[in-house]
Design brief:
By secondary structure, this protein is α/β, with parallel strands linked by helices. Helices cover 38% and strands 14% of the residues. It has twelve helices and 15 strands. The protein has helices at residues 16-30, 50-62, 79-91, 107-113, 132-140, 184-197, 237-240, 263-274, 280-289, 292-319, 342-353, 379-393; strands at 37-38, 101-104, 124-128, 145-149, 168-172, 200-204, 230-235, 248-251, 257-258, 261-262, 323-325, 331-335, 355-356, 358-359, 370-374. The strands form four sheets. A seven-stranded mixed beta sheet has the order 2-8-7-6-5-3-4, with helices on both faces.
Length: 396
């Protein structure tokens, strides 16, 4: 009889969002006609930029004509898309060649697929609270997990230590769920640690566009030594509203080597073996994101989400609740009032003011006692939720 991957049995039940859905559905069934203010969702609410829509339409029309029709594209990415991304980096002062950019169907897919490059015996360091997929992808691969707890005292941004026994490091900045952003100095410490140990940093930069403080790095390749220690995984989902369109990219420097092998060459071989690339239509639309017009338009949408963040920050400031995130991130991570656990606070918000957020316990044990709010909702819902929070918790 065939043997299945035994590590699937080691996965914990992914109950967080299912439990949220069950609780909200039960509440709505008991209170028909009630409109909930959903402030926990990580999906965007604004449409794709006009420049992207126009480019998508042009690409569809291209596929209707023999002269402009495109079949299979290069598995690692169309030259025009790779060049658009690399030009975007170069415009920010980051040296990057076009072929160091690999197209993907989104950061979530890539964060799991990239583990193909590493032996299952390698250990993965995961800073908690953490995006659950980091843990689950490592479990499926049979990889040993090293958990590094973080908390309020460090702003949920832990420092490296030579006592850490790990080979891969997941770093996410701005972080999901905490909204915390690594400083240049702290990120330098992690890069130096990785180079000393021979470890690899998997840098999740899905939310980099939300960083407005110019002193904070948006790419790990702004840090000295990152080209010999890091892979950067990016997404257009939150940057440009591609959650339902699915497109991203991964950056692997040519000089990144371990054990005499270049990871760039290994990933090229992986992609040419396991994928047929991403469609011409999506890459054409994605390239429009990096035009001057596209950048201006996506920032108009980002400005809406950032105003939502300011609205929520103002409310939490008024009630005297500790939080991180918001200014440079699309998430706010607040401390539950009165020592409440995160699911009790979820129930209180749901039943008393009809606001839905995300309990921190779902992001690991370090998240217990904290709560995540998303800024991706409508301004009207965000303003009403903020008003209800202030009324419920009282001004500090």
């Amino acid at each position: 009889m065939i043997e299945l991957n035994p590590h699937y049995a080691e996965l914990k039940d992914s109950y967080l969002f299912r439990r949220i859905a069950a609780k909200t559905e039960a509440y709505c069934a008991a209170h028909p006609g009630t409109r909930l203010l959903r402030m926990g969702i990580g999906d965007v609410s604004l449409p794709l930029a006009p420049a992207v829509i126009r480019s998508l339409h042009e690409a569809v029309d291209d596929q209707a004509q023999i002269a402009t029709f495109h079949g299979y594209l290069p598995e690692c990415g169309a030259p025009f898309f790779r060049r658009a991304v690399a030009d975007h980096y170069r415009g920010r002062g980051i040296a990057l060649s076009d072929d160091e950019v690999f197209v993907s169907s989104g950061a979530s897919d890539e964060l799991g697929d990239i583990l193909d490059l590493f032996s299952p015996s390698s250990a993965a360091l995961i800073m908690e609270p953490a995006y659950p997929a980091y843990v689950d992808a490592s479990v499926i691969a049979g990889r040993r997990i090293v958990r590094l707890p973080s908390g309020e005292e460090s702003g949920f941004l832990p420092s490296p230590s030579d006592s850490i026994d790990a080979d891969l490091v997941y770093l996410c900045s701005p972080n999901n769920p905490t909204g915390a952003v690594f400083s240049r100095d702290l990120l330098q410490k992690w890069v130096d640690w990785a180079n000393r140990r021979g470890a690899i940093i998997l840098f999740d930069a899905a939310y980099e566009v939300f960083i407005e403080d110019h002193e904070l790095p948006r790419s790990i390749f702004e840090i000295d030594g990152a080209r010999t220690s890091a892979i950067e995984i990016c997404s257009l989902s939150k940057t440009a509203g591609f959650t339902g369109t699915r497109l991203g990219y991964t950056v692997i420097p040519l000089e990144l080597e371990r054990g005499g092998q270049r990871l760039h060459a290994m990933w090229t071989r992986n992609r040419t073996t396991k994928t047929n690339g991403v469609s011409y239509i999506l890459q054409k639309g994605g390239a429009a994101v990096f035009t001057e017009e596209g950048q201006r338009q996506i920032r108009e949408n980002i400005a809406v989400y950032k105003q939502n963040a300011k609205t929520l920050m103002k409310a939490l400031d008024r009630v005297g609740v500790w939080y991180t995130g918001g200014k440079n991130a699309p998430y706010l991570w607040m401390k539950c009032p009165d020592g409440m656990n995160s699911w009790d606070f979820f129930d209180r918000l749901l039943h008393e003011i009809q606001v839905v957020g995300t309990p921190g316990e779902g992001f690991g044990q370090c998240g217990e006692g904290y709560f995540r709010f998303s800024t991706f909702g409508s301004p009207e819902d965000t303003e009403e939720a903020a008003r209800r929070l202030v009324k419920l918790l009282g001004e500090g």
